[in-house]
Specification:
single chain; mainly alpha; two-stranded parallel ribbon; about 0% strand; disordered N terminus; disordered C terminus
């Protein structure tokens, strides 16, 4: 009756007069039809209202819980997680093949994008390369980069949301991309160990340019304008290689492309990069710029090559880090090869002078270097020796599970695992004790024979990973450690299911969430890289 009353109550006399006048114009047949339509509408509204009041019509979330129980379970866990982990979980849910609800996908991706802004890590990084050839020590920066490149940084999460949104709503994807804040890239020093890796931004821009705009003339102009805007934002040498790749992949007609390439050339001419940023990926940067010039031809190619010459001379002839002039490092070779490649081009163009040796003689060499390599402490070396004895038994090849079934081997293995769990903070194992234990326990998982022995050590490892009230700064290292355990089981034993179940049965909501994220995500191509970054095994 309440619904009927709402539709039949007139607000004032003017409403009544208007309806009476309109009603009289309908005639008998029109009035009869109007009465039937009104009766049907009111009865439908009343029925739906009653059903909703009784809980018969399922809500949007009730329908989703019924259709996607696994995804909703992951969503519920993610709601209580740290912002970067929640953003990753929402991104994986939205990208799940089974999810067909585009409205929910769009909502998830927008929430993921917004949550990613709370990550303390701005972007992935590349560690500074070490000397070429074998090395006796493992650079600390390589291990640290594994923690920083687990996909919990703002750039990886936000560009991931944009790429997934392109499959749902191209206009929203474009809007999200435009919301990514400009990069604030401070000059690096020769003692810096990491270089920002902004490839995800330019790869996403390239994909957006291809998918967002039509192939019609107006669309081509809009695509060129979009690329022009992206190029205008370049502010560091670390952006040159990915930006060049973005332009090379577009295949725009020369008339639309000329303005974009012209702006890119101007950026090259004016950009002065610090030595650390300039030499990062110099080999691939040189190759890409020359390939781009080959694809252009004419005055655009000449302008680009002239700008590239200016860029090389200015940076090679400025202040350089010590390793860039040391032939034992790749950077020195890249400098020589880049100049030689340019001069081969210049040999076929009279208006393009070659680069002489004097042009690239450095004004100054900065002797600062990245941090010292890791040096294993005596206690760490002792653990390594125990591990080698358990793994190889002094015979130079892996022991079989049968050889590991002896009482002597099992006793040595138990001693090894117990020693890990009993480690106490000291000068050798101080503030990073939890990660040292996890690293050593990962080595124990690696050496354990299949069956109950491995199951027990996996359970003990999972117990180590249960960290209450985790500080935000610990999240990347923790997530990297958990993910490394999953990847280790898959890459070595082709059995990640055992690890995923152990995490899900741990009773820890964050460990359970990580397991569900891995179930949703594709096979991780970086598994081996993360494995190397997490587990240290020295050689003798």
């Amino acid at each position: 009756m309440k619904v009927f009353h709402t539709f039949t109550t007139l607000r004032n006399k003017r409403d009544a007069c208007t309806i009476i006048s309109f009603w009289s114009q309908l005639g008998d047949s029109g009035q009869a039809l109007a009465v039937k339509l009104l009766a049907f509408f009111l009865s439908s509204v009343a029925v739906l209202s009653a059903l909703t009041d009784q809980g018969v019509v399922p809500s949007k979330w009730d329908q989703r819980r019924k259709l996607y129980p696994d995804l909703i379970s992951t969503f519920d866990l993610a709601e209580a997680g740290p912002a970067p982990l929640r953003a990753l979980a929402l991104l994986r849910i939205a990208s799940a093949a089974k999810l067909k609800d585009d409205n929910w996908k769009s909502d998830l991706l927008e929430e993921s994008f917004e949550g990613a802004a709370q990550s303390a890590l701005p972007w992935p990084v590349r560690p500074v390369a070490g000397p070429e050839g074998p090395t006796a020590a493992f650079p600390r920066r390589v291990r640290k980069s594994a923690e920083l490149n687990v996909g919990l940084d703002r750039l990886s999460l936000q560009t991931g949301a944009v790429r997934s949104m392109l499959l749902v709503d191209k206009q929203k994807a474009h809007k999200l991309f435009d919301s990514i804040p400009p990069f604030t890239l401070s000059p690096l020093t020769c003692s810096d160990s990491f270089v920002p890796n902004l490839e995800a931004y330019y790869q996403t821009a390239a994909l957006l340019a291809k998918m967002r705009f039509s192939s019609q003339e107006k669309g081509k102009r809009e695509r060129a304008d979009f690329l022009h805007t992206v190029v205008l934002s370049i502010s560091s040498a670390v952006e040159i290689a990915p930006a060049t790749q973005m332009l090379f992949d577009q295949n725009l007609p020369s008339d639309e492309f000329s303005a974009v390439v012209g702006t890119f050339a101007q950026k090259l001419e004016k950009l002065t990069g610090d030595s650390r940023s300039f030499f990062d990926q110099l080999d691939s940067t040189s190759e890409l710029v020359l390939k781009l010039s080959d694809s252009l031809g004419g005055k655009e190619a000449l302008a680009l090559l002239k700008a590239w010459r200016t860029y090389l001379v200015r940076n090679l002839g400025g202040v350089r880090c010590a390793e860039t002039v040391d032939p034992k490092w790749a950077y020195s070779r890249w400098a020589t090869e880049s100049v030689a490649a340019f001069n081969r081009k210049a040999a076929h163009c009279e208006s393009l002078p070659p680069i002489e040796q004097e042009d690239v003689r450095p004004d100054k060499v900065d002797l600062a270097l990245p941090e010292d390599p890791i040096t294993a402490s005596p206690q760490e070396q002792d653990f390594d020796k125990q591990w080698f004895a358990l793994m190889f038994g002094g015979q130079g090849k892996n022991l079989s599970d049968e050889q590991k079934s002896t009482a002597e081997w099992k006793a040595s293995f138990d001693e090894f695992v117990n020693a890990i769990e009993n480690l106490e903070p000291s000068g050798e194992f101080g503030s990073d004790l939890i990660w040292q234990k996890c690293e050593l326990m990962g080595m124990a998982v690696l050496v354990a024979p299949g069956g109950p022995e491995r199951d027990r050590v996996v359970d003990r490892y999972v117990t180590l990973l249960k960290i209450a009230n985790m500080p935000p700064g610990m999240l990347p290292a923790w997530y990297n450690t958990v993910s490394s355990l999953i990847d280790l089981a898959q890459s070595i034993y082709h059995d990640r299911e055992r690890i995923l179940k152990a995490l899900e049965n741990s009773g820890d909501p964050f460990l359970t969430l990580v397991a569900k994220i891995h179930r949703l995500g594709p096979a991780n191509s970086a598994a081996r890289e993360r494995f190397v970054g997490t587990f240290r095994i020295t050689s003798f």
